[in-house]
Amino acid sequence: MEPRIAYATAADGTHIAYAVSGSGPVLISVPAPPDNHVQLEWGDPERRRSIEHLSHYRTLVRFDGRGTGLSDRDIAGFSLEARVSDLEAVVAKLGAEKVSLLAGGHGNQTAIAYAAAHPERVERLVAVNPFVRGKDFMPLERLNLWREMLKADFRMFTDALSAETYGWGRAEGPRYAAFFRQCVTAETAIRIYDAMLGVDLQPHLEQIRCPVLVIRTESSGWAPEAAVRRFVASMPDARLALVGGSPVEGATDEMVGKMGEFFGEDWSEAPADATPAPAAASAQPEFRTILFTDVEGHTALVQRLGDAASRDVLREHERLTRSALQQHGGTELKTMGDGFMASFGSAQRAIDCAVTLQRALTDLNRDSAAGDPRWESLRVRVGVNAGEPIAEDGDLFGAAVITASRIASSAAGGEILVSNVVRELVAGKGYLFSDRGLQQFKGLDEPVRVWEVAWREAH
Both 269 and 390 in a single domain? Predict the structure, then answer.
């Protein structure tokens, strides 16, 4: 059964999304930001199998930290105290007197700090590939290189990170890179990393009184052995388990088995009805929201302005579109010169992105015309549809994509048109729509009901 997603409110008013699955004692999976998204994780076969395995033995609670996934995105501060308050809010909303914690990498900062502050609430703690200081997971030279890459080009950063994680040329890489870009914006990722790198857990580790299992994986990717040993030695009741593989996409079966031993139970077998192994499930489509943009009158614009001047105008479209995608967690799939194709894990985020883009273009046209009467107004059509496209080599294909493209082509400049399925997905979210009726698009067997978003009045 798909996990139930709900929201808790942190002390500063930030809304934190969390998902609950399974039954029994509570095990909270503390995220290692910034690549967290409770909804998309369930849609990934490998992550889903790990979730189902753990949910067979415990009530598994996962949450998106502030600034990531389905939680509030427009966040300024990511201090350790703020991140701990996210976990405090989730525990309070659950109403659980006792919980156990599972964390990996930098997620151990939140788990350890919470356990030190609330020893009466934490029964057991599992730390995967941990380190004491935020900067211990990588040599300083490499750390600076990654940070500069993130600042310069978010797509290049995620592509390189996925290759570093999975190995160059592996098919899993583009999928993980696209997932990362949907979890967080580049600006937020930088702020989160900077906050985490400045943390030293030593004072907190000395206060931990619950039993701790530290798991070091053979291919941890980021946690040096010396850092893990120092972490274990800093606590009075910690034990170390060495396992094979890498926990890039959730707990492996061997890791879950070690956790079961730690809890005094047998967790070695995954439930019989769990999601099939990733190789068998990888071809299954995922539900996505697809957005197309298209510059109105592109050919005529080039003829009037010439190649150089028209390229300057189109460059503004590209800048504003990419900014809106980053702000709302969209993944740029391709650009066609005069338009973009992007995907979202949420219909609401797709519409918010479209509204942000249209408002930015309106401001650009007004300000540019005031400063230069020769400015050519930039009007863009936007079409949005949702469905289960076929994913292949970092691109999407199928009827859901074709429909989104046809909807965009039918719009006028400055309009946002959506399919009926998108309108239903955001029902009750405060958007205003006007019915454009059934439309028969080329290449589609059945007509599509299309709605216009009244974006000038949208929230």
Answer: no
